[in-house]
Amino acid sequence: MQEKTVIVGAGVAGVNAATKLIDNNYKGKITIIDMGKSPHERLPEEVMTGFLGAGGWSDGKLTYHTSIGGQLAKYCGEDKAMELFDEVIANFKRFHPNPSEVQCSDPQEEPDFIKPYFGLRLFPVWHVGTDYLHEIGKNWYDFLVDNGVEFVWEHKVYDIDFDKKEVSLANHDFAGEIKYDKLIFGVGKSGIDFGKKLAEKYELPTEPKSVQIGVRFEAPQHHFQKLIDVSYDFKLYQKFEEKGVSLRSFCTNNNAAYVAVEDTYGNHSYNGHAKKDEAFRNDMTNFGILMEIKGIDKPFDWSREAVKKLQINNTGTFYSPSKRIPSMTSEGEFVKCVVVDSMDSLYDAIGDYALHIEDFIEDMKKVFPTLGNDWGIYMPEVKYLSPEPLVNYDDLSLTRFPNVHFVGDALSARGITVSGAQGTYVAESILINKEATEMEKNSTKPENIEF
Ligand SMILES: Cc1cc2nc3c(=O)[nH]c(=O)nc-3n(C[C@H](O)[C@H](O)[C@H](O)COP(=O)(O)OP(=O)(O)OC[C@H]3O[C@@H](n4cnc5c(N)ncnc54)[C@H](O)[C@@H]3O)c2cc1C
Question: What confidence score (pLDDT) does residue 131 get?
C-alpha cells in the first residue's frame, strides 16, 4: 500500500520537506494542509499563513550560520547542518525568476567605532527580498503540484490523534479527518498555541525556553549607513551575564524597509521586511531590539501577559521622542498601532527589564551620532518560544510517537534556513526509512543452513 505522508503547515519547513521527498522520487502520497492560501491567491496582509508560511512574506534573509535562527546543529552536527542549509538556499535560488539577484553579505570584521558599546555578530546572509519571494512561491508551488503533491488550502487542523494516526480539519463548510502513516508537524508561529495544546494533551516531555521580547526600532537609514556598509543585517549585541539578560538587534531591514504587524493569539506584535524593487525605496531602517531573559518561571505565559499589556484598542503601540509618526506599509497604509507619549507602557509590561532596552537605544545614540531622537519604536516585538518537545535527534520525531515529526518554528527554529533545513532533515529520514522497509520486503529469507 502507498505510504501517506501528511504535512500540517505549508510553511518553509513543510515545503522543503515535500521538495526533498519529490526530488528523491518518493513513491508515497504527500498531502499538505494549510489554513492559508496558495501563493497565487495569498494577499499581502496575510503575513503569517499560506504557501511558504511566514517565510513567504518575510524579508527573505537566509542566514547561513548554525549559531543563528534556532536549533539545528544540536540534532545533526555542524557539518550536516551546513549541508542542509545549502540545500534550502539552493531551493530558493532554483525557483527564483532571476537567481543572480540573490546576494550574500559576509562581514568579516567588527568595526572599531561600535566596540566600546556593542559586540557585532558576524555571519553570512543570503538576501532574497520580499517581492521576489512571492514569485519564488508561485514557481515552487507549481513544481510541487506538477509532481503530484496534494494541497488542502484554507482548512485548519484543529486536532490530531497520534494513536489513530489521524488529523481532524475543518473550514467554514467542511469538517473531516485524514489518515497518515507519517506526519510532519510544521505549523510555525501561527500554530504555536496548537502545538502547545497537543503537547499538553499527550503530556509530551518538553525542554523549557527563555523569554525573547523587545521592540521594533525604526529610523531613517542614513544614521546607520556606516554600519550597513559593513554588514547589511547587522547584529549588535550586549550581554549582562549576572542578570541573565542579553540583547541583540534582530532582523535588520534597509533601503525599502517596512514594519509588519504579526497577529498571534489575537494580539499584535511587530516585525519587519524589506523589498528589493527600487519602486518601494523609502530609505528607512528597522530592526528588532530583542532581549533574551533567562530564568523566568513559565516564560511562555509571562511573554503572553506582557504582549497583552502592550495592546491598546486591539493593536500594539508606537512611541517616538521626536514625535515621528508611524510609517506606511508597502501597501500604502499606516502600520496599525496606537501612538503613546512615553515608554511607560513597556515598563508596565516587562518591569525594569525595559531599562535595558532604553540603555541599548542610548548606546546607539553614542555610536551613531546623528541618530539623536530621530527614531520610533513599535511595541512589542516578541518571539514566542513554547517549550520544545523532546524529539529523537536523528529524525526529529516525538520520543513517544516515532511517526510524528516536529519541524520549524513549531520545534526549535526561529528563521527560514533552519526551518527549511529541519524539514529537509526529516524528509531524508523518511526516505531512508522507506528504503530500509523496501529492502526488507524484497529480500528473500535465507534458507536455514545447518552446520
Ligand atoms: C514579517 C516576518 C519577517 C521575517 N523575516 C525573516 C527573515 O528575513 N529571515 C528569516 O530567517 N526568518 C524570518 N522570519 C521568520 C521565518 O519566517 C520563520 O522562522 C519561518 O517561516 C518558520 O517556518 P515554519 O515552516 O516553521 O513556519 P511558517 O513558515 O510560519 O509556516 C507555518 C504554516 O502553518 C500553517 N498553519 C499554522 N497552524 C495551522 C493549523 N492549525 N492548520 C493548518 N495550517 C496551519 C500556517 O498557515 C503557515 O502557512 C520572519 C517572520 C515574519 C513574520
Answer: 77
What is the position in ligand 1's atom list of the atom closest to the CA of 156?
42
Using CA positions, which residue lies closest to atom 17 of ligand 1? 55
User: In angstroms, what is the span from residue 13 Cα to ligand 1's centroid?
Assistant: 9
Instruction: Give CA–CA dist 52/16, Å, rounded.
Output: 9
Per-residue model confidence as pLDDT tens digits over 267-304:
999 999 888 788 999 999 999 999 999 889 888 889 99
Please tell me the distance from the alpha carbon of residue 363 to that of residue 289, in angstroms, as a whole number.
12
Q: What is the 3-state secondary structure (H, E, C) of the chain?
A: CCCEEEEECCEHHHHHHHHHHHHCCCCCEEEEECCCCCCCCCCCCCCCCCCEHHHHCCCCEEECCCCCCECCHHHHCHHHHHHHHHHHHHHHHHCCCCHHHCEEECCCCCCHHHCCCCEEECCCEEECCHHHHHHHHHHHHHHHHHCCCEEECCCEEEEEECCCCEEEEEECCEEEEEECCEEEECCCHHHHHHHHHHHHHCCCCEECCCEEEEEEEEEEHHHHHHHHCCCCCCEEEEEEHHHCEEEEEEEEECCCEEEEEEEECCEEEEEEEECCCHHHCCCEEEEEEEEEECCCCCHHHHHHHHHHHCCECCECEEECCCCCCCCECCCCCECCCEECCCCHHHHHHHHHHHHHHHHHHHHHHHHCCCCCCCCEEEEEEECCCCCEECECCCCCEECCCCCEEECHHHCCECCHHHHHHHHHHHHHHHHHHHHHHHHHHHCCCCCCCCC
- Which residue's alpha carbon is at the smallest distance from atom 27 of ligand 1? 188
- Looking from the CA of residue 51, the nearest atom of ligand 1 is 49
Q: Which atom of ligand 1 lies nearest, measured to the CA of 262?
A: 53
Contact present, 235 and 248 (Cβ < 8 Å)? yes
**317-319 and 338-339 as β-strands: parallel, antiparallel, unpaired?**
parallel
| Segment 350-375, tens digit of pLDDT | 999 999 999 999 999 999 999 999 99
- Predicted structure pTM score: 0.79
pLDDT digits (tens, 9 = 90+) for 76-135: 999 999 999 999 999 999 999 989 888 887 877 788 898 889 988 778 889 887 778 989
Pocket test for ligand 1, best of 8, 12, 382 (most atoms within 8 A of CB): 12
**Given the CA of residue 15, which atom of ligand 1 is nearest to it?**
25
Q: Cα of 55 to ligand 1 centre, how many Å?
A: 5
